[in-house]
Fold this sequence. Notes:
This protein is α/β, with parallel strands linked by helices. 43% of the residues lie in helices and 10% in strands. It contains 21 helices and 14 strands. The longest helix has 28 residues, at 399-426.
Amino acid sequence: MFAVSFLPRTKPCRLTSAFLSHLSIHPPSSRLHHLPYQQQPHLPSLSSQIRSFRKQIDMAAPPVVMKQNKTGGDSYEEALAALSSLITKRSRADKSNKGDRFELVFDYLKLLDLEEDMLKMKVIHVAGTKGKGSTCAFTESILRNYGFRTGLFTSPHLIDVRERFRLDGVDISEEKFLGYFWWCYNRLKERTNEEIPMPTYFRFLALLAFKIFAAEEVDAAILEVGLGGKFDATNAVQKPVVCGISSLGYDHMEILGDTLGKIAGEKAGIFKHGVPAFTVPQPDEAMRVLEEKASELDVSLEVVQPLTARQLNGQKLGLDGEHQYFNARLAVSLASTWLQQIGKIEVPSMTQMSILPEKFIKGLATASLQGRAQVVPDQFVESRTSGDLVFYLDGAHSPESMEVCAKWFSSVVKGDNQSESSKHLVNGSSGSSHDKSSGEENCQQILLFNCMSVRDPNLLLPHLRNTCAAYGVNFKKALFVPNMSVYHKVGTKADLPENDPQVDLSWQMTLQKVWESLVHSEREEDCGKSEVFTSLPMAIKWLRDSVHESSSGKRVQVLVTGSLHLVGDVLRLIRK
Ligand SMILES: Nc1ncnc2c1ncn2[C@@H]1O[C@H](COP(=O)(O)OP(=O)(O)OP(=O)(O)O)[C@@H](O)[C@H]1O
Ligand SMILES: [Mg+2]
Ligand SMILES: [Mg+2]
């Protein structure tokens, strides 16, 4: 089905020509270059040669960069402390964030000698309100399945900052991270001044991604915009191969503007002259602006419809939830365009295809991103009681995503509970006391929630509750907790703060009030079914105790949402 006329890498690794001759390894490309097109091997064998070739390099090569820790120490903690020093104290709601001397990003690229590398990088650039990270993860996974070396930059991270930088689908190693980190940090420390100060946190991370992807010579760099588009540090890319705009909605209005049109205008700031772009169906107001900006820049903008189950040939997407069919379809177009333009691989147009090519399906089915529609059974409880506690984690934090998250949770708990009951019926335990515990009657859904105070709980909580209720899922109780991660600090697994009795819970009380007013108005018996905990570990302890104390093997299903920080904190605690 495909014509293969491209070799994923013409130059295997910058450091290694001497090193290769030393090992008498010949880069596959240097051998294959001389073959006429028809005699070139099929891609699978070529890509496996490249893989094993790279593996040989990885295993034998000295550390790619020397640790240059003149201002910092060796340890990961020291790098994180240096990184934390770049987090500005200014409130995110401050309007002066807008633009904020965006042109500085180009100065930093010069200081880091990255200008030329940036021009060579084969970038896929994705903006949007929701679904950016998922779209990028799908795209990366498809290209990797075609044998290309990939670099993926996403945000935010949940547990460890290295999650933001993936090489060939794997979080960058601590050693490589430290090497590149200090290389960039020290160089910038030396070369910045009053005129050009040290970059802020996200800008530094984007520059670090550029450095990593350039030095690691990735074939494809997939970049998720941090915030907005026009003035985002990732927009330093001058000539991406293709751009994507995922679902648009209301978020970060304090910075991006208070109408969908204004928000769309900021996101369309990633469009580049003549570079093709794709988007999913958007509200009219947003679509109009995207089309306007596209025509100004001679950008062909194509609107893609969600993927169908048929196109996936019965496979499930690696990321769960209906909304992922939009993200996955966007990823298919981004990856196809990249494969055709850079990979020189023919991909039939979607209209010609009822089923996607196998490598696309495999890429989409194996894509992963933590904290998006993720289900994690609590092992602590599982091992000790007949009941069980399952966490359903999704970092939704905007009204639209709250709704898709609620739909996902409702459908998945209903499915889980039905399959549990039928399992017990099949096992012949119908009528026993235990089978009751497996049916829907003995299941309880509990909400564990927090959101940042810039969000409007009067929008988020009703969306969440009403959507779940419409699907027949009513929360038994809602728990509100403060975040553990400290905003001004990039933490690690090791340094979760201890319980703080002085913690200010006024925001959580506000959330509780909004929740109570919702349930009060509708179901009298639900009154008072919410609680504020002073810390997340206490809320988790309460959940575990309530499963232990129940004699009938209660099944507790906890939806954790409202904040990716909260989701990250829960993951840290339940995985310990
Ligand atoms: N197409 C979509 N439409 C609506 N909501 C979505 C969509 N895709 C994802 N979401 C919701 O947004 C959450 C975050 O998804 P994802 O990480 O892909 O988006 P993002 O744009 O990178 O978000 P962030 O602003 O946190 O970086 C998901 O957990 C899900 O609840
Ligand atoms: Mg966002
Ligand atoms: Mg994201």
